[in-house]
Design a protein that fits this description.
The chain is built from 9 helices and no strands. Helix 3 runs antiparallel to helix 4.
Length: 180
């Protein structure tokens, strides 16, 4: 988990706000390792809701990388540097290509499995998953996949479950404080 986590953090830092680097990271081998990381986390959390905290960190990092690769940072200072422009000088994004590739690799089902597992218990992972879904929703086909997989309903359930846990925790803390 440690090496993958460092690798994902490096990819995130390299690609954040830099379209030419995103285009370089939009290669099948990199996206396959990214999806393998997400799938491993989803499988582990589906089997064991109390899995190791490193699994949550790895899932969060993978979600952040998906988010940054699928977001077009056309207003960043590096958006027009080098490979990010076409021959006419127009800014070119790799986001749609990345979304298509990840969609074909099964990212929707993987995120759905993740939402059913550990994401319900971790605020950071739940928010990272939400941001990932938002960044993937730049194509009609991807939105249709999300709806068809029941992912939006799963997201709503996960947020509801998380909010109920927070409310229960807060009420228990108030009860404890009132008794003391």
């Amino acid at each position: 988990v440690g090496n993958r986590l460092l690798w994902l953090q490096l990819i995130y830092q390299i690609c954040r706000g830099h379209e030419p680097n995103k285009k370089q990271c939009n290669s099948k081998p990199i996206l396959q390792v990214l999806m393998e990381s997400l799938q491993k986390c989803a499988e582990e959390t589906a089997e064991d809701q109390s899995s190791h905290p490193d699994v949550s960190s790895l899932a969060e990092a993978a979600c952040r990388v998906v988010t940054v690769l699928c977001r077009f940072d056309d207003f960043s200072q590096h958006a027009t540097d080098g490979q990010a422009t076409d021959s006419t000088g127009m800014v070119v994004s790799s986001a749609h290509s990345t979304v298509t590739t990840l969609g074909n690799m099964g990212v929707v089902n993987t995120l759905n499995t993740l939402l059913q597992g550990k994401a319900q218990n971790s605020q950071q992972l739940l928010l990272a998953t939400l941001q990932t879904l938002r960044s993937l929703a730049i194509q009609d086909e991807m939105v249709q996949r999300m709806v068809g997989a029941g992912l939006l309903d799963g997201l709503q359930s996960a947020f509801q479950h998380y909010c109920e846990r927070v409310m229960d925790k807060n009420s228990k803390e108030k009860e404890t404080a009132a008794h003391n």
